[in-house]
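As a representative case, we now present a protein record of this kind.
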Amino acid sequence: MTWQVLSGLLAVVPLGMMPAAHAESNMPVLEQAASSDDIPIYTPPKKFTPRARVGGSLRGTEGSDPEIVALVPDHVGLTVKQNPVLNWFLSKPTTYPLRFTLSDTRAVKPIYEGPVPAPTQPGIQSLDLKKLGLTLEPDIQYRWYISAIRNADSPSNDIVAGGVIERCEFSACLVETSVNLTCDRQSVQRNAVKGFWYDAMACLCTLIDASPTDAPLRRMRAALLKQVGLHGVAEWDLQSLSKASR
């Protein structure tokens, strides 16, 4: 989707009026309960701006078009990192060109707009801003989008998902919130409860990529996703683990 169309969408649908995500899915959840001590609890930041997510529901994967979901809360999510990793979901492989857009909410034109390599497998994907040479300034809100281009001549038909991210100034995060800079199960829990959604989710996805059949890790991710209303993606993720374990 071109930046002009995205700007038009935001002009028509203000931040506080974007449709809330009501993810629906008929897929069964695994009948395995994680220990309550293992479940990360996400606490939204005090500076709470609702309805910041674009897209967000998983309606079903039987159609011809892929579905894209940004793995973000429906408000401005926080990170402590200058070059965070963004996570998103693709329901099926696609031949549509994919594009990533990053914009400073204070500016008209995007900071970056470029192609994204098409994943060969469906599921949860990662996009590392460091590899793109992108750095977030502290205390500034940035919008980001993943778009599937269905028709280059008709940008309004693009499939779009995205969210809003803000970086906490490093020294303030360390002093005021004791953000955890390591990546393990404990840091996922601590960063989630401190409100650092992007850092908790990116670390959890990294751990799962290293151990894709680790059921407790998958249940931790599903719990976080459900806490921000992304039930369909959480259940898809758990079901894919169930199939892989057979």
Remarks:
- The helical segments are 3-12, 170-177, 185-193, 197-210, 215-227, 231-244.
